[in-house]
Predict the 3D structure of the following.
Amino acid sequence: MNKKSLVLLMSIGICLSACNSKKQKNDESPVLSKTFYEIDFSRDFTGSSCNNLLLSDMFEDVEYIQLETTNECLIDQRTFYALTNKDIYILNKNYTKEKLFRFDRSSGNFISTIGKTGQGPQEMQTPSALYAENSFIYASSNAVNKVFVYRKDGEYVRTVHMQRGTGERITILKDKYIISHPGQNYKEGENNFKEGNPNQYNAAVILDMEGNILFTQRDTLKGEGLPYMTLDWDPKRWYFNNQLNYYNEVDNIIYEVNEKGIIPRYKFNLGKNRWTVTGKLTKETMAHIKFHCFKETSDYLFIYWNQNQKAYFARFDKHTEKLDVMEDESAKGRFWHLKANGPQNDIDGCGIYFTTSENYEDKTGNFIFTITPDNIDYVRASLEKAKNVKFPEKRQQLLKMLGDREEDDNPILVIYKLKR
């Protein structure tokens, strides 16, 4: 990782800093001293049974939106969502007919299709992710390392050619800077890993709207074989106070990205639970902690991870620095690809999974769960069994929406609103 504590970029008027954990621990800055934590994850969590983890610890309300269904806006299973206060943007990721749809958030009604996909000028090529900011929509493609920019009315603005790739997600900072997470290094759109070559992991890259790199947080990987079996293609990300946060599993630090720079916020001390870079799945690597999901409020950091083919949820109290852990026995899947119910849903009783393709997060940190034909029976059963929920009227509203659905209708969006 870049060990310089400060990189001053006068041309753009922001500072981008990256410091190692030891330096940050001793930093006497009053801002950092209130926000930097070290969390012990070195112990054995087997059998952890904290039973007071609730969904209402994270979220304070819920909203339901039935998306309109027409022949112009049929949504497949492979999608990506971006929400603003007024609009819902949906990238339909069917590889033969990718489309970018715009819906009205208050009614769920379809408004328009944005842009076109193809190989020609001003056309999106294999878009894979979305970001909506102010009046602009950004569709990124990790296949061709480009970001396609449109106005919300569909007018094409520009194409940004991304050096080192886009990764699976991008964030836009004030319509001036692009934050990408290429993860494993890319070259000309292809995986650059070959035996004998230095292995690089780009946890974060900040670029301007011309595609020029302003800053890179890069780590050199050392290990046997190719690390893609145990290393995420891009870091886990979430939003807190409208700021992007991401976990770099190379140095086990959570960073925030804002106008002042890249700021360390949490350090995980994993001990023997820390993974080692390897291209092999072994009993040893399966015993390592693999973080999958983070949520954050003013009081807590919530953490979900897999270890030894088991799922765990934890709540870290920022005031007391206490870590409460729950082993989730509902986990299903193989290796690190487990899905689990998570904390008890005491908001509306809807059955949700925390780490599947059915879930998304908007830039305010809200949690978006999509109800589709694949999970509707499970959701309905969980609602019918739910008791003592905080919003029984919302529970009844969702049950009615499920009853009114036709088999081929577009998804229902369930939006859990993050506590501030």
User: Anything to note?
Assistant: The mean pLDDT is 79. The two ends are 32 Å apart (CA to CA). The first strand starts at residue 7 and ends at 9. Helices lie at 21-25, 30-35, 283-286, 376-385, 392-404.
